[in-house]
Amino acid sequence: MKHDEDLHTLAGAYALDALGPEEHDAFLAHLDRCASCAGEMSGFSATAARLAAAASLPAPAHLKEGVLERVDTVRQLPPLVPSGRTVRFGRVWLRKAAPFALAASLAAAAAFGGIAVVQHQQADQARAQAQRADRQVQAMTAVMAAPDAKSVHGRTSTGASTSVVSSARLAQAVFLSTGLPAAGEGRTYQLWFDDNGAMRPAGLLRQDGAVLLEGDPGRARAVGLTLEPAGGSAQPTTAPLMLLRLPA
């Protein structure tokens, strides 16, 4: 059984439902008498909920169009007569229809050959995107569940809610935002580590959501967010939308 000083480190893992039965029960009992852990766990739970929403993948834009284009090519089952037997068409009609059916089959085969290539490429792209997203989510989850994970919360000058979860042991940090407006044409959000006044690039954020910051938080005292030209900048070119001080 863990002592209270050990149980303090389980807040992040508890918020992610990543504890075993024994640790879960021990931390739950500890939570009733520890105001510090109760406050920290509440913050982790809110951050975990935002992480889940931010990391979700929308359906590819081409999916609806692809379904609508292919719906007419899906062969339907023949209708059933009241007795339960399928309807059979006469041999004469089938003989007359045979040449047209053959021509249609050849045309369909050629068309589906091209469609199959495109669909294969799209499937490969979607699979690669899903794998990248999965690696990101795993890395962000590891930071949140780290025994030394610490979180801070704040708002940008535009009113968006933000959080930073950092782990010194993993040398990584996660940034999450809710309500961040679109950056606009030719612009992007850029994250920064504030190393005692020296701003160090920490990655780009294309839209509202969650991202694993690039680089080791190290001795950074804060995380900043600015609006920069597309592709990012070597140093901030605009006033910070947010400068969130990291916990000691």
Give the mean pLDDT. 75
- Strand order in space, largest sheet: 1-2-3-6
State the major sheet: 4 strands, antiparallel
Number of strands: 8
Structural class: alpha+beta
What sequence of helices (H) and strands (E) makes up the elements?
A: HHHHHHEEEEEEEE
- How far the N terminus sits from the C terminus, by CA atoms, comes to 29 Å
Based on CA atoms alone, the radius of gyration comes out at 27 Å
Number of helices: 6
Q: How would you describe the shape? A: extended
Q: What share of the residues lie within helices?
A: 40-55%
Low-confidence stretches: 86-90
- Tell me the strand percentage band: 15-25%
Question: How would you summarize what this structure contains?
Answer:
Strands 1-2-3-6 form a four-stranded antiparallel beta sheet, covered by helices on one side. It has a four-stranded antiparallel beta sheet with strand order 5-4-7-8, with no helix packed on it. The chain has 248 residues and is of the alpha+beta class. The chain is built from six helices and eight strands; from the N terminus they run H-H-H-H-H-H-E-E-E-E-E-E-E-E.
Characterise the protein shown here:
- By secondary structure, this protein is of the alpha+beta class.
- It has helices at 4-7, 11-15, 21-31, 35-55, 62-70, 91-145, and strands at residues 150-155, 161-167, 172-178, 187-195, 198-205, 210-212, 222-229, 242-245.
- The strands form 2 sheets. Strands 1-2-3-6 form a 4-stranded antiparallel beta sheet, covered by helices on one side. Strands 5-4-7-8 form a 4-stranded antiparallel beta sheet, with no helix packed on it.
